[in-house]
Amino acid sequence: MDLLTGKTGLILNIANDRSIAAHIANHAVKNGAKCGFGFLPMDNPEKSQRRVRKAMEEFGFADGWLHPIDVSKDDQIEQFFAAAAKQFGTIDFLVHSLAFADRAFLQKDPGVFTSTTRAAFAQALDISAYSLIALSRAAAGLMPNGGSIIALTYLGGEKVVPGYNVMGVAKSALESTARYLAFDLGPRKIRVNTISAGPVRTLSAMAVGGIDEMFAHVERKAPLHRNIDGDEVGKTAVYLLSDLSSGVTGENVHADSGFSIVGL
């Protein structure tokens, strides 16, 4: 397939082979895109890079351009995009697939959300939502001919999902941010959309309290009577990054086996 042939994009952040970002990258590359990738350096940048390279090898794009970036630091965002500009010149798309919240506040126990500290709230909103503004601002400068920006969200941004807590608030902010960016960047022919993926067994998802119950509940309740996998999110992303969705912006596309449409 060649839905993204001739297009260049940046995908942030791959953590390991389970990352939704890795599945999106896999389908983007298979559809002809030239991609650059971001990763969080963590406490041991070399170890982090080796883990990411291993994931890239497993998906078959080990030779892709890779650069560290901590989206909570403006200087690292600036360095990342300066390096990307030097490597690619211009880009056609950006994938925001990253989030963080202190796992101490992602538990199902009553009162956990109420106990969210100011610092934990600010950190979750900064990394999970504000980062989309900062990254989009930088990416827009490399999109002279327009482009597509997508971010990954979850139903917890629309409805209360026990245990998701402050991350749900952050995802709600992310979805609203995407709509305002879609309006702001529309005159520059840059589209901004979000994908609300069903629960996938990623590193970050496993930090959410009661995650196994979520998987079981989705399987029982969703119209398709199954959970999704990262591969399906990757295919949805290709649609939103390609010209097939040229008239779509400011939307939140659900890839969740239909779970979000069902009431009690």
Secondary-structure topology with pairs:
Elements (H helix, E strand, L loop, with lengths): L7 E5 L7 H11 L3 E6 L5 H15 L5 E4 L5 H15 L4 E4 L21 H23 L6 E7 L11 H21 L4 E8 L13 H11 L8 H12 L10 E4 L9
Parallel strand pairs: 1-2, 1-4, 2-3, 4-5, 5-6, 6-7
Helix pairs in contact: 1-7, 3-4, 4-5
Quick summary of this structure?
With 264 residues, the protein is an alpha/beta fold. The chain has helices at residues 20-30, 45-59, 74-88, 118-140, 165-185, 211-221, 230-241, and strands spanning 8-12, 34-39, 65-68, 93-96, 147-153, 190-197, 252-255. The protein starts with 7 loop residues before the first strand and ends in a 9-residue tail after the last strand.
Structural descriptors:
alpha/beta; 7 helices; 264 residues; globular
The percentage of residues in β strands lies in: 5-15%
CATH class: Alpha Beta
CATH superfamily descriptor: NAD(P)-binding Rossmann-like Domain
Number of DSSP helical runs: 7
Main β-sheet description: 7 strands, parallel
Mean pLDDT: 93
The helix/strand order is EHEHEHEHEHEHHE
Question: Largest sheet, order of strands side by side?
Answer: 3-2-1-4-5-6-7
CATH architectural category: 3-Layer(aba) Sandwich
Number of domains: 1
CATH third-tier fold name:
Rossmann fold
Helical fraction equals 40-55%
